[in-house]
Design goal:
alpha/beta; homodimer; Aspartate Aminotransferase, domain 2; four-stranded antiparallel sheet; 13 helices
Amino acid sequence: MAEKRYLMTPGPTPAPPEVLAAIAQPVIHHRGPDYRELYSNVLARLRDVFRTDQEVLLFGGSGSGAMESAVANLCSPGDPVLVVSAGYFGERWAALAKAYGADLDHLRYSWGEIPTADEVAGRLREREAAAVFFTHSETSTGVVLDPQPFAAAAREAGALSVVDAVSSLGAVPLETDAWGLDVVASGAQKALMTPPGLAMTTASPAAWERTAKATSPRFYWDWERTRKGQQTLDAPVTPPVSLVAGLDVALAMLLEEGLESAFDRHRRLGRACREGLKAMGLELSSPDDDSSAVVTAARVPDGIDSDELVLLLRDRHGVTLAPGQGDLKGKIFRVGHIGYYDVFDITTALAAIELGLAELGAEIERGVAVTRALDAFEHAPV
Amino acid sequence: MAEKRYLMTPGPTPAPPEVLAAIAQPVIHHRGPDYRELYSNVLARLRDVFRTDQEVLLFGGSGSGAMESAVANLCSPGDPVLVVSAGYFGERWAALAKAYGADLDHLRYSWGEIPTADEVAGRLREREAAAVFFTHSETSTGVVLDPQPFAAAAREAGALSVVDAVSSLGAVPLETDAWGLDVVASGAQKALMTPPGLAMTTASPAAWERTAKATSPRFYWDWERTRKGQQTLDAPVTPPVSLVAGLDVALAMLLEEGLESAFDRHRRLGRACREGLKAMGLELSSPDDDSSAVVTAARVPDGIDSDELVLLLRDRHGVTLAPGQGDLKGKIFRVGHIGYYDVFDITTALAAIELGLAELGAEIERGVAVTRALDAFEHAPV
């Protein structure tokens, strides 16, 4: 039998068969009534998922494109901005701000550290900023922030809050309007369960005001052009119609499950993964609490190279985990549980990790991880 | 029976079932060996299709994104550029050049006029330009240029030649290296027979030199970042893996047919479409010669609104043609024959047009178009 494959990376994530079937339908014309209806449905469903009454701007591209659109539409060269980073994707905000010639104040934490809103507020008292860019779920480390105090600190200092929610949207609570998040950038290839190639952002009235004055050049990522196109259901450029059809199905599935149920499922998936890994005797490198519902990261035992473990699991057992990035390369592995996952995906990942570590000669506790995970998924800790 | 649908627009175009099946495969990780192999194959096949030894840069996005990348990577604000336009997509070059603050000289023809290289050379003698932007196949009018004399005129004036080949690549001859085209921008959703969402550009050594000095801000569309990623098969951002899998299958089909055979097929499809429309008594608005192998445009008889014809064919008969754009709105309709088309697609389009015009009360010749098209497809005019 051809080897079965298990995709356990924190993005792209597995797409449900219903979504794959939708993207395989014959191509439709983006100016015809079929697409207009689809476009309208997807835009409405996105507003529900982002929990906003604002237009959710939909682009063909990756999450980084949505992030770039935020920088390009909000910043003019020389604008003072604050970037908060504590991992790979926080660094991306800094790279984008530099690329657009913003005057960057970089509040940079070690990878895996947990930024605090107090420090952000302090930094904003020292130096004003037009916008504060931060990361809701830092996929490289597994840290998930509560965006609310960060947005409040920005607002108090007269700055816009701009949130990378690429790996968090649909997995953990996010309230665009209620929390006063000025800009939320995301992508479809994580908890929205769609193959990669679609990105989106929201913009508050304050963000729209700023956009009108921002002089950075832009066309494809231009928010105003995109909003105009969406308001007349006439896409500004040829959209990835097949992926949009997939996203429509995926959003319907997510909303039918209910966002609160999906958040609860992700919390319990994280809990199951953590308890299973700890039962094996491994040390977590992502936080050991319910905030960590997107990706779980663990250190490998001394003497083991985590890159080697990831390769072995992939090549010998068909299970794809994510390796450590940057400073954490070789030291950790990451298990994604974003989107189309249930507890048996977690037990598969744990069984594979147990097997792989044993094959590499690591001394780990065997035979306990799966049962502990099943138990943790069902029963919240007392 | 549910209505059968026929997509006859000049983009997006129908994707072969094999391509749709490929994009519906389970999602794979873009940093794993499966994707690296796919990425490598696609990049090699793209070089064959572009007929270049240079790296073909692959992006998630639409053809307009590839065009924007050319402007962003070649131009600094204030750079003098020449844009040659004679339709909707020529205007896009002008809009992009303006968005990036280039000092634009706009050689603007009426829609449907055929630009000449002599006029371009004359314009370049009057005012120097860093780059000349023009359109190989103007999808809004059906005009296809020979890019060679335009590239030569640019080269002679010390300017880079930048070609929009979105609807031409794979349908009509295009030799990136042999013709000295500095930059060729294209997309996968036309003759490359893949659902929309992938764009690509080439860059000559002279273009790369210029890129190193261009100060326009860019990240997602940055050529150097993209080239570095491709050279290590490590995509710079999460790519649309499913669409790339589809493109791989489509490129293999195109190369197996052979580019010269594909060009010949497109020439004969254009010929069949023109002869059929003329047999009905319609006047062509696209050129009546073999250059016009991508999209055929025809005027509707007096008293008929072409928008109404397009709506009727789509809503009553399931056949989607493209309407006229801009100045040509209401006056013409366009039949795309780019990519996955054979002669029976043309006869279907002609049969539908004959039926629709008759239903609208137009006086046309009935019962001759299909046979004339079949004959023209088989036999070149003497």
